[in-house]
């Protein structure tokens, strides 16, 4: 069977850089699934993307679908045949609907019931007759933001300007938003030709390169990195590589050319974080440092074009940056006049959320929550004092001109301004740290005071929004509550703080309720919060490659401390590789399953035991309970549970729990319930799948 290459290109007005990677990955995934679903063979897919295009080259596509045989299931046998064994209208209609006859019927048993089946031979169609279906894939792509243009109904990331759809030399005909497919693409907007006619799909990448478009995003990124390295080596500079910035710059250009510029040394008097943020966030420039790590009055930018008139381009970028830095210098100078007390007064008039209150009110709750958490963790007075002051003034920099202009600097400027105003270094550091971790790659607060305020602030935010019924669902999480909960879990885990998640939630919920914010019952809010944190813990354990059923087990009951969740999951994961794991879990599960038959449990009365097996198991129960109270390593606790497996098995072999005598039955259920409590310290072990 002969093969051809397929080229699919969507030409657009410039797309937002941050949306391009997901868009091209989505297109490639959908096209790949389409080929598999339609049983059309191909060798591989190459992806291309620039600010103006999303494109795929599918190599060595089969010219025809594979012939295939499909099995179709029909009515049950008792419906397909009447009492005389004749075919009914149901069976005849079923076969006719598949283009077959009752002679083709055979029966197949499913879950103990026989059903009518037929096998259909489906001859493969020519690939060229099916490729127009790719139109639905293009129009079906989803984007974070869409727009409409002209009088068209289509909503898309940006207006479609051209479409290329080629199967070998053949054009695949379809039309989207008034644009018909063809074999004509476009080069660089300023350096290349307006139209480039392609005679074959495999010409695509090279043809665009001749017109100043590096279509392969990875090759474009490698080009940028090589140019940055060359400039750095030539000048003995260090260029710190921010991967997020690199990705964005890469998706802003089609033909990259890196160049350097400079700014006045007097701007180095501004905090380096301000300079770097201004360069990165506003101008997409790479900052430059010396070999000793000091920020230099230099920057590197990447031009979307060649090196013609590069000096003029550098001067233009310098002029733009100079204006930005002049603004920053003015803001920084003006902020020196700000007093912390006056800034805190301003926070009383700034609404955090219309149904939650002002930032000052939130800070007050955070301060109270810090004190409650610190009390339960038994922190030293000096740490509590530092955390209290940090919580009190943690948001004061939000009213500074610098943070108003550069929101990314909240906390960072708070630390610097706090030091300038005479606050202790520990308090200043905690102000900065209370926003940490700011993202998935960020570290947790280093100081205990910073971690206390960070947990309290994030927890107050989560609980307040849950109290209003604002709960993340699907991809909707406008207040980043998942990220904040993950930050709490990460901090508790790495700090190894022994406070149960249930206690934390309860403390924050009581403060939010006292503030009159809640619109739901405390029971509902509490339940939703615990489930929410269980999902965050589940995600954390999945990242550590813990088995799914072990995760379900350790999160089946109360959460407890994050550290205990991690320890229990690790202990069970380790134990699951041993030969006796299956038998141990089966024994524990018998106890848990029968204990669940009784909702209210009473005291065990040993004088009601009727055999030695009850007594032996009771003795082991007392020993285990004593060890549990004393505290012990989780792995050792599991082994102690495993050691009473013989007594559990002997008990069930010689004891009928559901005895006819109600008093005996009651006592035996109480014994099972008491033992179940000790087993549940490791988790809901009857959730574990054993084979």
From TrEMBL:
Q: Which reaction does it catalyse?
A: tRNA(Gly) + glycine + ATP = glycyl-tRNA(Gly) + AMP + diphosphate
Aminoacyl-tRNA synthetase among the record's keywords? yes
- Assembly notes: Tetramer of two alpha and two beta subunits.
The EC class name is ligase
Instruction: Provide this UniProt record's keywords sorted from A to Z.
Output: Aminoacyl-tRNA synthetase, ATP-binding, Cytoplasm, Ligase, Nucleotide-binding, Protein biosynthesis
What EC number(s) does the entry state?
Answer: 6.1.1.14
Q: Name one GO molecular function term.
A: glycine-tRNA ligase activity
Looking up Pfam families in the UniProt record yields: DALR_1, tRNA_synt_2f
Q: Where would you find this protein in the cell? A: Cytoplasm
Q: Which family, according to the similarity comment?
A: Belongs to the class-II aminoacyl-tRNA synthetase family.
What is the species listed in this Swiss-Prot or TrEMBL entry? Mesobacillus stamsii
Q: What is this protein called?
A: Glycine--tRNA ligase beta subunit
* The DALR anticodon binding domain, residue ranges: 587-679
Q: Which InterPro entries does this entry report, sorted A to Z? A: DALR_anticod-bd, Gly-tRNA-synth_bsu, Gly-tRNA-synth_heterodimer
Keyword Acetylation annotated: no
């Amino acid at each position: 069977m002969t093969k051809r290459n397929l080229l699919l290109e969507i030409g657009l007005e410039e797309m937002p850089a941050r949306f391009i990677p997901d868009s091209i990955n989505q297109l490639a995934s959908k096209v790949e699934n389409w080929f598999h679903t339609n049983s059309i063979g191909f060798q591989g897919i190459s992806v291309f993307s620039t600010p103006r295009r999303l494109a795929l080259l599918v190599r060595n596509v089969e010219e025809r679908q594979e012939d295939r045989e499909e099995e179709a299931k029909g009515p049950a046998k008792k419906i397909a045949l009447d009492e005389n064994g004749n075919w009914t209208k149901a069976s005849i209609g079923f076969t006719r609907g598949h283009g077959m006859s009752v002679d083709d019927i055979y029966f197949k048993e499913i879950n103990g019931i026989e059903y009518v089946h037929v096998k259909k031979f489906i001859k493969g169609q020519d690939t060229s007759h099916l490729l127009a279906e790719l139109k639905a894939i293009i129009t079906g792509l989803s984007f974070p933001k869409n727009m409409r243009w002209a009088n068209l109904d289509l909503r898309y990331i940006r207006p479609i300007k051209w479409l290329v759809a080629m199967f070998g030399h053949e054009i695949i005909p379809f039309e989207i938003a008034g644009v018909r497919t063809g074999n004509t693409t476009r080069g660089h907007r300023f350096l290349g030709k307006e139209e480039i006619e392609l005679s074959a799909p495999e010409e695509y990448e090279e043809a665009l390169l001749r017109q100043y478009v590096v279509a392969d995003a990875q090759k474009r990124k490698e080009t940028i990195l090589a140019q940055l390295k060359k400039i750095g080596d030539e000048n003995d500079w260090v260029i710190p590589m921010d991967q997020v910035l690199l990705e964005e710059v890469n998706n802003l250009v089609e033909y990259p050319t890196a160049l350097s510029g400079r700014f006045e040394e007097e701007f180095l008097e501004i905090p380096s974080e301000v300079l770097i943020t201004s360069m990165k966030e506003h101008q997409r420039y790479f900052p430059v440092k010396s070999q000793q790590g000091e920020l230099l009055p230099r920057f590197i930018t990447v031009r979307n074009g060649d090196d013609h008139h590069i000096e003029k381009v550098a001067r233009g970028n310098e002029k733009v940056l100079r204006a930005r830095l002049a603004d920053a210098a003015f803001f920084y100078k003006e902020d020196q006049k700000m007093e912390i007390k006056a800034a805190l007064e301003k926070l009383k008039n700034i609404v955090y959320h219309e149904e939650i209150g002002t930032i000052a009110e939130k800070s007050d709750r955070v301060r109270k929550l810090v004190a409650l958490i610190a009390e339960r963790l038994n922190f030293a007075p000096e740490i509590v004092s530092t955390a209290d002051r940090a919580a009190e003034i943690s948001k004061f920099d939000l009213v500074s001109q610098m943070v108003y202009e550069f929101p990314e600097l909240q906390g960072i400027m708070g630390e610097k301004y706090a030091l300038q105003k005479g606050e202790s270094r520990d308090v200043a550091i905690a102000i900065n740290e209370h926003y940490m971790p700011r993202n998935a790659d960020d570290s947790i607060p280093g100081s205990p005071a910073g971690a206390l305020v960070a947990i309290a602030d994030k927890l107050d935010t989560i609980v307040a929004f849950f109290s209003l019924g604002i709960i993340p669902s699907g991809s909707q999480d406008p207040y980043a509550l998942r990220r904040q909960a993950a930050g709490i879990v990460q901090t508790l885990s790495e700090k190894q703080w022994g406070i149960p998640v249930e206690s934390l939630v309860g403390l924050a919920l009581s403060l939010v309720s006292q503030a009159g914010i809640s619109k739901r019952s405390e029971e509902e809010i509490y339940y939703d919060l615990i489930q929410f944190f269980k999902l965050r813990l589940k995600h954390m354990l999945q990242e550590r490659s813990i088995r799914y059923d072990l995760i379900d087990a350790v999160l089946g009951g109360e959460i407890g401390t994050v550290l205990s969740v991690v320890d229990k999951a690790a202990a069970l994961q380790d134990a699951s590789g041993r030969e006796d794991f299956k038998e141990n879990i089966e024994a524990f599960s018998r106890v848990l399953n029968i204990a669940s038959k009784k909702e209210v449990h009473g005291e065990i009365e040993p004088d009601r035991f009727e055999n030695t097996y009850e007594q032996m198991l009771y003795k082991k129960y007392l020993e285990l309970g004593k060890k549990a109270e004393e505290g012990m390593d989780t792995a050792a606790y599991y082994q102690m549970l495993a050691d009473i497996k013989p007594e559990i098995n002997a008990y069930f072999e010689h004891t009928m729990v559901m005895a006819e005598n109600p008093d005996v039955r009651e006592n035996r259920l109480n014994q099972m319930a008491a033992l179940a409590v000790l087993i549940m310290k490791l988790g809901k072990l009857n959730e574990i799948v054993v084979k």
